[in-house]
Amino acid sequence: MQRKLLYREEEGVSPVIATILMVAITVVLAAVLYVMVIGFGTTQQAKPVVLFSGKTKASTGTWTFSPQPDKQESMSSYQVLVRNGTVAAITPALLNTCVASPFCTGSGLTIKVTDDVSAGQLTSADIFTLSGLDDTQVSGTYTVVLVYSGSEVGTIKIP
User: Fold this and answer.
1) Are both 24 and 91 inside the same structural domain?
2) For the segment 76-111, what is each residue's pLDDT rounded down to a tens digit?
3) Same domain, yes or no, for 39 and 59?
4) pTM of the shown model
5) Residue range(s) defining the domain that contains residue 145
6) Under a CB-based contact definition with an 8 Å cutoff, are residues 109 and 130 in contact?
7) What is the dihedral of CA 14, 15, 19, 25, to 10 degrees?
8) Other CB atoms within 10 Å distance of the CB of residue 143
9) Strand 142-148's sheet: what is its strand order?
10) Whether residues 149 and 72 fall in one domain
């Protein structure tokens, strides 16, 4: 009876290559762990939520309303736009530019922001005035939108 050899005389990976592979794997694992720890350590700032209240028809073609933000932020952090259906009637503009003349205008509409007490901060004391609406054609299709960091954070339909 002839015996078979179970093991052959073969050499494995050279010690130099094995060491390089172990160091590379350790570096990759350390980098992954570092990214995980850094990622968990940072918190993303929550975007504000802005509700609107006090919608009132001030005069023919003019409506006023007030923002109700959940936290105070600089007006320069917001953009405002007005849509007529899905079409932009007033294109996005920084909210702080709507405080002084010529305010924010487009398609015959004007949106004016009265900054009552907060010196550049959006608060519930501020008043928005949307004018230039044709009362005979307004049927709830105008929407005033506040945008913060590229996301809509508040809307109101007029009337």
Assistant:
1) no
2) 999 999 998 888 888 999 998 898 887 999 888 999
3) no
4) 0.69
5) 50-158
6) yes
7) 40
8) 17
9) 87-94, 78-84, 142-148, 151-158
10) yes
